[in-house]
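Hey, can you fold this one?
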Amino acid sequence: MEYFKRAILRYVIALFLMILGLPIIYYLISPITFYLSYLSLFYYNPNLISETAFIIANHQLNFIPACTAASAYLLLIFLTISVDIPIKKALKIILFGSSIILIANIIRIDILIITLLEFGSKAFDTIHLFFWQILSTIFVVFLWIYITKKFKIKDIPIYSDFKRIIKIYKKSKKKK
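Sure. Predicted structure:
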């Protein structure tokens, strides 16, 4: 019964984060992403015009919340919560994975901005769509696979809990 309670608690927390997590991630990660992107493009001499925009070579670059890649952080957090691991290990995984997502996102933003500056808006739109619709999901999947190997996670999110709960239920039925 202890396992069942832990699983329920984990999924309640996951549900809570899925509902309220995006605004929190936007609030925490957006400024970090924006300023690191601004700083990483120093060789293009960007001019800061607000907390969410700068200008490079007559191109005003506006950062919207989606630039933060909040859904990638949220997916990482959900996957981490949906496996039965100690809280300390879960926090390490979330911090480690979030750092990788942040670095990859800064690189993505830099590639997009350089594409815009060097090849124009059509190339930017094409690359942006590719990153957004295809590469981002593949990236998080491979990041999770890497994390499971690095942190020796044997559970499969949701599935392992489902299997264990069914097993516990069957055992309790046999005892009756």
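The first strand starts at residue 47 and ends at 48. Let me know if you want another pass with a different chain boundary.
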